[in-house]
Amino acid sequence: MSVIKIAQIGTGYWGPNITKTLKANKDVLLNTIVDIDIKKIDELKKKWPDINYSTHIEDIKKDVEGVVVSTPAHTHYSIVSYLLNNGFNVFVEKPMTINYKEAQDLVSLAKRKGLLLMVGHVMVYHPAISKIKNIIEHGDLGKIVYISARRENLGKIRDIENALWSLGIHDLAVIDYLIDKPPTHINADGFDFFTNSIKDRVDLILEYDDMYATLTSSWFYPEKLRELTIVGDRASLRFIENLSLLEQFPYSIENKIITKKEKINIPFDNRLPLDIECETFVKAIKNELTPPTSGEKSLKIMKILELSNISIKEKRRIAFE
Fold first, then answer.
1. Is the pLDDT of residue 251 over 80?
2. Residue 26 confidence (pLDDT) above 70
3. Which helix (H) or strand (E) holds 273?
4. For 313, left (φ over 0), alpha (ψ -120 to 50), or beta?
5. Is the dihedral of CA 268, 271, 272, 274 positive or negative?
6. What is the CATH number of the domain that holds 216?
7. Which helix (DSSP H) or strand (DSSP E) does residue 233 occupy?
8. Quick one: 46 exposed, middle or buried, by C-beta within 10 A (0-12, 13-18, 19+)?
9. Do 107 and 202 belong together in one domain?
10. Please, are residues 188 and 164 in contact by the beta-carbon 8 Å criterion?
């Protein structure tokens, strides 16, 4: 694969990880970094003097083939719109935008321009999630009955997005990737302990025709908990992300008695999800492929997030239409 030129906009909280990953990718020439923070630029210049730096996105050259956007979510719409209108393929960090209408507009714009729009749902690229996807498709779990996801810890108190938009979005993307169908109804509740109307904890129920999923997201919990459980009528899987542990629990159901069988520890590749995600962006540009987290596929997640806000506010169950 020939080397392609990539630019990056934003070097804040998650940005340095992206920069490091792109620099390590032998198929990428990280050509330009844009950030409004001069101090950050000065620091990066010392580490990587071979990169072009600017405070203006207009300085990204036309020969750049893809741009990674890692800026605050409320800036995504204007930045990505500019990039697509100027002929750049885009990889934008999650969430794609701060509302569903803006996300629809970006997906439509990318389609009209014939450009790639990819969203940074990094957990979809975790090797354990790929392994789980294969196990489900092979039928080892039988019929999926329900999925449970918990993402909790003590952490930064946000003042713009709630815990579902900031944390639970990872699990939303994973569940959508694993089962690949829309819910029929959404029911969410949330609690704001620190900032009025910004929910520090969100509980979400997704109802499907033949199963359901529950998600709990919080930055106000005494220990780090990142756990995904998929329950089928033949076996269950549990992925404990922070322990890098994937377990399968087979069982039999006979005469209304559920009997456990021996637990199986399932190995998986230890590659970093961000490495795989950035590789996917590069391959999608070079080979005109549709990535698992394309803008179009991510619209469903944006709609669930927006409907969850309405459900929390109006305290009611909402149909997904």
1. yes
2. yes
3. helix 273-287
4. alpha
5. negative
6. 3.30.360.10
7. none
8. exposed
9. no
10. yes
| Residue 115: domain span | 4-123+274-293
The answer to whether the bond into 267 is cis (omega within 30° of 0) is: no
Q: Is residue 27 included in any domain, yes or no?
A: yes
pLDDT digits (tens, 9 = 90+) for 169-201: 999 999 999 999 999 999 999 999 998 889 999
How far from the centroid of its chain's Cα atoms is residue 160's Cα? 18
Q: Are residues 9 and 34 located together in one domain of the fold?
A: yes
Same domain, 77 and 219: no
Residues 149, 84 share a domain: no
Specify the CATH number for the domain of residue 48.
3.40.50.720
Number of domains in the chain: 2
Mean pLDDT calculated for residue range 287-295: 96
Residues 105 and 110: their CA atoms lie apart, in Å, by: 9
Looking at residue 1, what is its pLDDT?
A: 53
Is residue 165 located within the same domain as residue 66?
A: no
- Return phi, psi of residue 29, to 5°: -110, 105
In a domain, 298, yes or no: no
Helix (H, G, I), strand (E, B) or coil at 261: coil
E-only strand ranges, 208-291: 212-218, 220-232, 235-240, 245-254, 257-260, 264-265
Write the CB contacts of 228 (distance below 8 Å, at least 6 apart in sequence).
132, 147, 148, 149, 171, 174, 238, 239, 241
Pair 204, 215: CB distance under 8 Å: yes
Residues 224 and 169 reside in one and the same domain: yes
Residues 230 and 162 in one domain: yes
Residues 262 and 283 both lie in one domain: no
Question: Residue 33 is encoded by which pair of tokens?
Answer: 């970094």
- Dihedral angle over CA of 155, 157, 158, 159, nearest 10: -170
Q: 48 is written with which tokens?
A: 């990587």
- SS3 call for 187: strand
C-alpha dihedral sign at 100, 105, 109, 112: positive
Element (H, E) at 63: none
